[in-house]
Amino acid sequence: MSAASSTDPVPNRIHARPVPRPGRWIAAAIVLVLAAMAVHSLVTNPKFAWDTVGLYLRDVTVIRGVGWTLILTVGSMLIGIVLAVLLAIMRRSDNPVLRSVAWFYIWLFRGTPIWTQLVFWGLISVLYPTLSIGIPFGPEFVTFETQAVITAFWAALLGLGLNEAAYLAEIVRAGLGSVDKGQEEAARALGMKESTILRRIVIPQAMRVIVPPTGNETISMLKTTSLVSAVPFTLDLTFATNAIGNRIFEPIPLLIVSAFWYLLITSVLMVGQHYLERYYGRGTGESKPSGRGPRKPRLGRQAAIKASGTAKDAPFLEVTP
Amino acid sequence: MTPMVDVRAAHKMFGDLHVLKGVDLTVAAGEVCVVLGPSGSGKSTLLRCLNELEVLTGGSVRIDGELLGYRKDSSGALHRLHPKAIARQRARIGMVFQRFHLFPHMTALENVVEAQVQVLRRPKAEARSKATELLERVGLSDRMGHYPAQLSGGQQQRVAIARALAMDPEIMLFDEPTSALDPELVGEVLAVMKDLAAGGMTMVVVTHEIGFAREVADHVVFMDEGVVVEEGPASQVIDAPAHERTREFLAHVL
Question: What's the rounded Cα separation, in Å, for the pair A153 and A168?
Answer without folding.
Answer: 22
